[in-house]
Amino acid sequence: MLDTLLNLYNIAENKGITIDTINLKKKGVSIKLNNKCYIGLSNKLNGDFETRDVLAEELGHCCTNSFYTLNTPLPLLKQNVDKAERQAKDWAIRHILPLPQLLNSIKNNCGDLYLVAEDFDTNIDYIKDAIDYYTRKNVMPSYNEILAD
User: Fold this and answer.
1) Nearest-CA neighbor of 59 among 25, 120, 20, 17?
2) Which pTM value belongs to this model?
3) Three-state DSSP class for 39?
4) How far is CA 88 from CA 23, 66, 96, 106, 116, in A?
5) N or C: the chain end with fewer CB closer than 10 Å?
6) Domain ranges of the chain
């Protein structure tokens, strides 16, 4: 898990993304100004695993250029926010829960998603989000196929 967090910091450094830990009400925020991305992480994050999850999603905004503005007309705002958040989360999932490791963990834990979440030091909702993502991309085999191998 620590390797993943370090990899995320390396991605940010290689892309010239500035990361600061600051006093935030939210867990994280990312903005793009003058073609440069900045990420703020809350100084109240609960350890490396939460930092990893929040950083991955904020990096997802930067690496997929998935931002939205409050100047967007109201009828389109929710649609733009949802799309940007989904793209950022999808990027994060690909980097935190790569499909081969996820499938291996599901198989090794006989499909118990709570144990899979423990393997990745994350919560079960993140595991379910990853399964939904890979299913949406049509690359997630069924549980029977995973467990039968």
Assistant:
1) 17
2) 0.88
3) strand
4) 22, 7, 12, 24, 22
5) C
6) 1-68
